[in-house]
Predict the structure.
Amino acid sequence: MTPIDPARVSADQLAKLLSNVSRSRIEVDAIHRDLESGAPRNSDGTLNLVHYAPWLVREERQARENRS
């Protein structure tokens, strides 16, 4: 298995990684929707996990607050 650079992860790699960690299928389309919604990305289109993770947490928190 090729090591993953956490500073440069493709949407495909991230979907596989999150699927393995969460033990539920994360579709690459969900990652693309995040990118369309403003998730931070590198100039080459890859994602930096250090930037993406807090963005995702903020988005989830806002979604929960909006449902309340």
Summary: The mean pLDDT is 94. Residues 11-67 form one domain.
